[in-house]
Amino acid sequence: MNKHILFSLLVALLFASCEKDDVVKPQNYKFVFQFITENYKPLNYQEGTEIKGLAPDLLREICTDLNIPFDVSVLPWEQGYQAALKNSNAMFFSTILNSTRKDLFKWAGPIASIDWEFYAASPSSATLTSLDQAR
Q1: Distance between CA 45 and CA 50 in Å, rounded?
Q2: Could you tell me the domains of the chain?
Q3: H/E element holding 5?
């Protein structure tokens, strides 16, 4: 995806949860974002006290350009997810968009995609005709 398109989508997400009166000039933000992520290499992970990976690097760059403080909490997925549901200023990055969560949040991205596939050693007599069989 073009970096400029992704940048625009993430900026839209940043301001989507703000009330009209909360958005002022970049140097005078009254609204404070609560950035939350989980350890999920290579997209986002913590090394010592530093947050690394594709997602925080991209979001950090956007925040720097917009003069928005970028302080991140690294939480277990379920705890971060619950915080995002309860707090209007929470931004939970990066998590997977699925049909259950689609209408619960305002989404930006994608920044990456994951394709799941099954493999078997050759030759193999394994045949699967449904996802239920694979489970």
Answers
A1: 8
A2: 3-134 (3.40.190)
A3: helix 3-16
According to DSSP, the residues that pair with 92 across neighbouring strands are 36
Report d(CA 66, CA 49) in Å as an integer.
23
Residues paired with residue 78 on neighbouring β-strands, in sequence order: none
Q: Quick check: helix, strand or coil at residue 10?
A: helix
Residue labelled with tokens 């009166």 = 21
Q: Are 79 and 38 in contact (CB under 8 A)?
A: no
Comparing CA positions, the residue from 105, 77, 91 lying closest to residue 35 is: 91
Q: Is the pTM value of this prediction over 0.90?
A: no
Reduce the DSSP state of residue 81 to 3 states and report it: helix
**Looking at the chain, how many residues does it have?**
135
Please list the rounded mean pLDDT of every run of 10 residues in the chain (135 residues). Answer: 47 48 51 90 92 93 91 94 93 89 88 79 82 81
* Cα 111 from Cα 13, distance rounded (Å): 13
Nearest one of 56, 59, 58, 69 to 28, comparing CA atoms: 69
Cα torsion angle, 86, 88, 93, 97, sign: positive
